[in-house]
Specification:
single chain, alpha+beta, three-stranded antiparallel β-sheet, 2 helices, about 30% helix, flat
Length: about 70
């Protein structure tokens, strides 16, 4: 019974430490009157938007979309 508990503990520990680390960047929760709040990359970008930076947030940059190429019909 003790061997099973030790083996389960080792497997749980290995599962916790093999995961990839979070890659969230620290951003700024930008608030503007009359508009919904958004998470921007930094304080400067929030000021360009015309709002105020109130609290930090987890900023995730928008992913680039790849264009699909289609064969042209003659």
């Amino acid at each position: 019974m003790r061997k099973i508990v030790i083996l389960a503990g080792l497997l749980m520990g290995a599962a916790l430490f093999t995961g990839t680390p979070a890659k969230a960047e620290l951003g700024c929760q930008c608030v503007k009157l009359g508009a919904p709040s958004i998470c921007t990359a930094g304080v400067g970008e929030c000021l360009n938007y015309g709002g105020l930076c109130l609290v930090p947030c987890d900023y995730q940059a928008p992913k680039m979309h790849r264009h699909r190429h289609h064969k042209k019909k003659n």
